[in-house]
Amino acid sequence: MAFDITRARAAYPALGEGFRHFDAAAGSLVAEPVARAVHAVHTGAVANRSDAFAPGRRALEIVAEARRAVADLLGADPAGVMFGSSATSLTYLIARTVAASWQPGDEVVVSRLDHDSNVRPWVQLAAERGATVRWAEFDPATGQLPTEQYRALIGERTRVVAVTAASNAIGTRPDVPAIAALAHAAGALVYVDGVHATPHQPTDVAALGADFYVTSAYKWSGPHLAACAADPVLLETLHPLKLRPSSDAVPERFELGTPSFASLAGVTAAVEHLATLDPAATGSRRERLLTSLAAVRDYEAGLFTGLVDGLAGIDGVTLCPAPDDRCPTVSFRLGAQHPAATSAMLGDQGICAFAGDYYAWEYFQTMGLRDSGGAVRAGIYHYTTADDVEVLLEALRTAAKAAR
Fold it and tell me: Is 217 found in the same domain as 83?
């Protein structure tokens, strides 16, 4: 059954404004059921968490429902799902907590393909604790992150291997299960940045071998909130800094302060929405999510092939090298034009595409592009249409001709 793009788009009121969105990698539009769920909490009797009265019990259930929803999305245990304001804040929290036991000579492995939120916290904590940072390099000619290098990078002193499930700059999907197997064989933990990957494919944290998997709801049609999933048994061994009166239970001990109940209700609604993207999907919510996100992956892949082929066919457009098997994200430059100028030119035509380094600092530094503006990024999301792609390509064709 073909993906029903008209039905998918109907869930996003903001699309009625007429912009062409290639910017979901920075933050997707919010689905209408999510906005409705958030509004209901803001306008209803929801108090802080308490067993004593109904509005307090509603808050408790909102939190529990959000944990169950994210667990279904990721194939995780709800008792190990923690929430935070962003993937960056959660990663810093976990890094500080894990690194508390590091000794001089311990090692952490990071990747130059990653978003800086899965690099800098580990690098900074290593410097603080006297640990050594070891770098996994990507191949600039192909955009691949070779797995074999990890055999030499991981050793008996490795404490954490941090790696992305998909590059937010070029979409590369490293072989996370193979990397995780090497890390676990050495007794190391694996921290996976799933922010870019989660919206575009089914996720199974156990199959990935992720000890920690972080994702941001605002990248998959939800509110500005992030979640990190881990085995609750592992979390029991970790003790973050916290206020004395706050709960010491897992996962609450990792959540600093009172959460946004409205945003958590939005998280649940976003997961429910993702589970409906294939109307033929049946079974449990987890089963419907797997079916729907597989349909999303196939739909996006078809559009993305047309986008990449079209960009490659424009004289003057230079693509950042990337493997064919990747998330639907491409970075490019238009001739000698500064990427910010290209982004503004597209923006003047109602086409939304970011320019810069998108916090993929190490990637663009390695490619020698960061100081000159990075690149322009175009991503496919499940509300993107073939017409959107053609409008983007035609705008670039026209600009390329004018520059000649």
Answer: yes
